[in-house]
Amino acid sequence: MSNITIERYSEKAIVVRGDTQSYKKVLTDHNGKWNPKLTGGQGWIFPMTKFNEVEELVMDIKAGTIKPEKYNNNLNYVKTSDFLSLLTRVERLEQLSNIKGINKEEQYFGNESREINENNVKRLLHSS
Question: What is the span of the domain harbouring residue 92?
């Protein structure tokens, strides 16, 4: 049985609180908006017009009809040193593009008449 509650938040809104992390997708699919700064604590906010739909959803969650999602907390993070190395390379590419006279529009949208010499790019990327 899930520790999830539904409460009236205001005249125009209701809030779902409790152990909702495993039900994030289903709450989002029902147009719930996560708000960590609500009065009384964090929760999923819904318009009052959705009360019957959300109430049924919460009852289904408590009854076990809606199964919790598997939450994967094993996220792959980039090491700070790798991030800084990549950032340095990007900055070097931006410097190279500025030296070649390529403006911002050309950087993002391309221009066949101005190409960065591939050897210069490789040299900049591999130098430290």
Answer: 80-126
